[in-house]
C-alpha cells in the first residue's frame, strides 16, 4: 500500500466524524422544524423518512470526497469551492426527488427554494471547517516558529551575557571599565559623562566615565537586552522588576536599583515588547 493510498484512507476515517455530524444536524433540523409537508403521520415513519435526508448528505459527502481524492483535488483551493457547488446541486436534486417520490409532497417554486437553502448549509459548514482547520495549522506553525526563535534568542543571550565589554573614557585611554554584559544594569547620561550602573559582588555600584550616551548606545546595539527607555537612560531589560506604564507617567524599577527610572512615551511600546519577550 503506497503512501498516497494510506493518506487517503486515513483522511476518510478522520472525516467520518465531521460528515456524520453534518448529517445528524440536518436530520435533527428536518425532524424538529419539518419544513415540508409529507404523507407520513406515524412517528416511526417520520423518523425514518427524515433520517433519509441525513443519509443522502452523508453519501454525497463521501462520494465527492472520494472523487476529489482519486484525482488528487482535495488540497486545491479552487476545487474546494467547486466541490461545495457540486454538493449543493446534487443534494438539492436528490432532496427534490426524495421529497417528491418518497414523501409524495407537491413540488413548487417555494419548496425548491427551501430545499436549496437547506442544502446550502453543508457546503457552508465544510467551508468554515476548512478555514478554521487552515488557521489552526498556521497558528500551530507560527507558535512553533515563535518557540524556536525564543529558544534561539535565549541561547544567544546566555552566550553573550558572559562577554566582557570595555568602556573607554574620552579623557584618557587608560581609564577603562571592563564589565560582563550580565552585570550591567543601566547607563545614564550625566552632562559630559555617563554613569554606568553595574553589579559587583552582589551589590549595585556606579562609575562615571567621560563619554556620551550615543557612543554607549552604539556599543550596546548588538545586544538585545539593552533598551533605551528615556533620552537619558539605557536599561538592561533582564533586571526589570516592575513596569508602570501609564499615560500620565511611566517608569520602570530595576531589581538592583531602588529608584523610579523614567520611560518616555516613544519608548513605551518597544520596552513593553522587549520585556514580554524576555519573560517568554
Summarize the SSE layout with pairings:
Blueprint: H1 3-33, H2 43-70, H3 77-101, H4 109-161, E1 164-168, E2 176-180, E3 184-190, E4 193-200, E5 203-209, H5 213-220, E6 226-230, E7 233-236, E8 240-244, E9 251-254, E10 261-262, H6 265-279
Antiparallel strand pairs: 1-2, 3-4, 3-7, 4-5, 6-7, 8-9, 9-10
Helix pairs in contact: 1-2, 2-3, 3-4
Shape: rod-shaped
**What about the largest sheet?**
5 strands, antiparallel
* Helix-strand makeup class: alpha+beta
Strand order of the largest sheet: 5-4-3-7-6
Query: What is the count of distinct domains?
Result: 2
- Terminal CA distance: 45 Å
| Secondary-structure element series | HHHHEEEEEHEEEEEH
Extended strand count: 10
Helix content: 55-70%
Beta content comes to: 15-25%
Low-confidence stretches: none
Q: Please tell me how large the radius of gyration is.
A: 34 Å
Oligomer: single chain
* Mean pLDDT over all positions: 84
**What is the number of helical segments per DSSP (H or I, 4+ residues)?**
6
List keywords for this structure.
single chain; 280 residues; alpha+beta; OB fold (Dihydrolipoamide Acetyltransferase, E2P); 2 domains; five-stranded antiparallel β-sheet
Amino acid at each position: 500500500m503506497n503512501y498516497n493510498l494510506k493518506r487517503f484512507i486515513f483522511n476518510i476515517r478522520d472525516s467520518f466524524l465531521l460528515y456524520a455530524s453534518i448529517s445528524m444536524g440536518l436530520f435533527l433540523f428536518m425532524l424538529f422544524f419539518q419544513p415540508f409537508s409529507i404523507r407520513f403521520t406515524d412517528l416511526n415513519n417520520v423518523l425514518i423518512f427524515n433520517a433519509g435526508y441525513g443519509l443522502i448528505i452523508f453519501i454525497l459527502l463521501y462520494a465527492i470526497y472520494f472523487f476529489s481524492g482519486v484525482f488528487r483535488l482535495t488540497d486545491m483551493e479552487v476545487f474546494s469551492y467547486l466541490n461545495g457547488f457540486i454538493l449543493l446541486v446534487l443534494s438539492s436534486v436528490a432532496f427534490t426527488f426524495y421529497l417528491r417520490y418518497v414523501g409524495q409532497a407537491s413540488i413548487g417554486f417555494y419548496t425548491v427554494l427551501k430545499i436549496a437553502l437547506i442544502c446550502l448549509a453543508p457546503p457552508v459548514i465544510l467551508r468554515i471547517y476548512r478555514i478554521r482547520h487552515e488557521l489552526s495549522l498556521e497558528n500551530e506553525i507560527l507558535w512553533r516558529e515563535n518557540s524556536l526563535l525564543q529558544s534561539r534568542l535565549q541561547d544567544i543571550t546566555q552566550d553573550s551575557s558572559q562577554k566582557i565589554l570595555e568602556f573607554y573614557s574620552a579623557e584618557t585611554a587608560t581609564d577603562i571599565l571592563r564589565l560582563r554584559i550580565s552585570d550591567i544594569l543601566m547607563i545614564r547620561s550625566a552632562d559630559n559623562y555617563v554613569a554606568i550602573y553595574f553589579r559587583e559582588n552582589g551589590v549595585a555600584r556606579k562609575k562615571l566615565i567621560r563619554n556620551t550616551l550615543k557612543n554607549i548606545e552604539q556599543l550596546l546595539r548588538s545586544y538585545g537586552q539593552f533598551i533605551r527607555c528615556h533620552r537619558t537612560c539605557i536599561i538592561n531589560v533582564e533586571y526589570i522588576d516592575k513596569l508602570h506604564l501609564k499615560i500620565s507617567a511611566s517608569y520602570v524599577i530595576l531589581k538592583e536599583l531602588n529608584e523610579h527610572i523614567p520611560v518616555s512615551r516613544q519608548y513605551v511600546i518597544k520596552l513593553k515588547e522587549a520585556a514580554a519577550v524576555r519573560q517568554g
